[in-house]
Design a protein that fits this description.
This protein is about 45% helix and about 15% strand. The chain is an alpha/beta fold. The protein has a single domain, classed as Alkaline Phosphatase, subunit A (3-Layer(aba) Sandwich), CATH 3.40.720. Strands 1-8-2-7-3-4-6-5 form an eight-stranded mixed β-sheet, sandwiched between helices. The longest helix has 21 residues, at about 235-255.
């Protein structure tokens, strides 16, 4: 465990902000790797939360972390964390991963597996010591791997219904994969087909801690903010920030009753951030409220309008996008 904590301290010097009580040595650690989250993006998320929820009632974890001098690090990458969970497991901690992307790819990095795709998935199931992996990338784990995992006493839930009904006991190595590729943007998520990132993180912390409140390390890898920024998809970005804010806020709130829990946030930084064409405060507020009412990302809207005639486009703009010009 000492070796592990020294490794964590090394990451702090590269740009992790640790939020923890001073009086307790950490026994449980949630590391949120937020791709594309720089101070400007964090401020946008905090302002969005305040505008949508209300200035007096808003509690923004992103803003809270910023006030606690959360750092961003352009040079820190997810790949730099190679082998982190392998080290944690070797030191007796339970370990887990929740990712918006490929579970096999991200888990291979964190557990030091030198393979990709289906080969990485096979190694993870057969030879890697993990407790909980959730997110996207279901296509890499075929029926034979699922069967071998359950035969060895593990759990594999590959659809939203099996997760939501709560009838399956989560035991042994647990895989909860909700899409063949990456998870959808939060704004586009269909709850009948896909459990959201926030729900998967909550399930991860509950499963890893167990009844005995065991020591654990959970890595949360969120790439959707960076994806939305790159695509200039403002509706998707706003909901991703709200989701990320909720995840961080929920974990921070757990510290009130669990002084050994540490929250670490790695913000990898970005060269882009949303900006307004006007500095009028009322216009900003109106834009945020419009964003909060939009039902889908620009990307999904574009797909929905493929082949549409003028009448269908007009109906969509009036009924779905509240008169926005797309």
């Amino acid at each position: 465990m000492q070796k592990l904590l020294m490794g964590i301290a090394g990451f702090v010097t590269l740009g992790i902000a640790l939020v923890q009580p001073a009086q307790a040595a950490p026994r449980q650690l949630v590391v949120v790797v937020a791709e594309g989250v720089n101070p400007q993006v964090m401020q946008f998320g905090a302002d969005y939360s305040k505008s949508v929820v209300g200035e007096e009632d808003a509690t923004s974890a992103l803003a809270d972390l910023k006030m606690q001098k959360t750092m961003t690090a352009e040079g820190v990458t997810f790949e730099a964390m190679k082998g982190l969970l392998k080290t944690a497991a070797a030191n007796g901690w339970k370990t887990g991963l929740v990712t918006t992307g490929s579970a096999a790819k991200d888990a291979a990095t964190l557990y030091g597996v030198d393979a990709t795709g289906a080969d990485a998935a096979k190694t993870l199931v057969a030879d890697t010591k993990f407790n909980f992996i959730a997110g996207g990338g279901r296509a890499d784990f075929n029926a034979d791997l699922k069967k071998s995992l359950t035969a060895a006493g593990g759990t594999a839930l590959f659809d939203a219904e099996s997760v939501e009904n709560g009838e399956t006991e989560l035991k042994g190595k647990t895989l909860i994969l909700q899409s063949d590729a990456a998870l959808s943007y939060a704004i586009d998520q269909n709850p009948e087909n896909e459990v959201g990132l926030g729900e998967l993180v909550s399930l991860g912390t509950e499963t890893l801690a167990g009844e005995n409140n065991a020591p654990y390390m959970l890595v949360v890898h969120d790439t959707n903010v960076a994806k939305a920024l790159a695509a200039k998809d403002t509706p998707a970005l706003a909901e991703e920030l709200r989701t990320l804010d909720g995840i961080i806020g929920d974990v921070i709130s757990q510290r009130e009753d669990n002084e050994s829990l540490v929250v670490a946030v790695i913000a990898t930084g970005s060269n882009v951030a949303p900006s307004f064409a006007t500095q009028v405060a009322a216009d900003h507020s109106n834009a945020f409220f419009i964003l909060s009412a939009l039902p889908m990302s620009f990307a999904k809207a574009g797909t929905a309008l493929t082949g549409a005639n003028d009448e269908a486009i007009t109906t969509f703009a009036n009924d779905e996008y509240k008169g926005w010009k797309i």
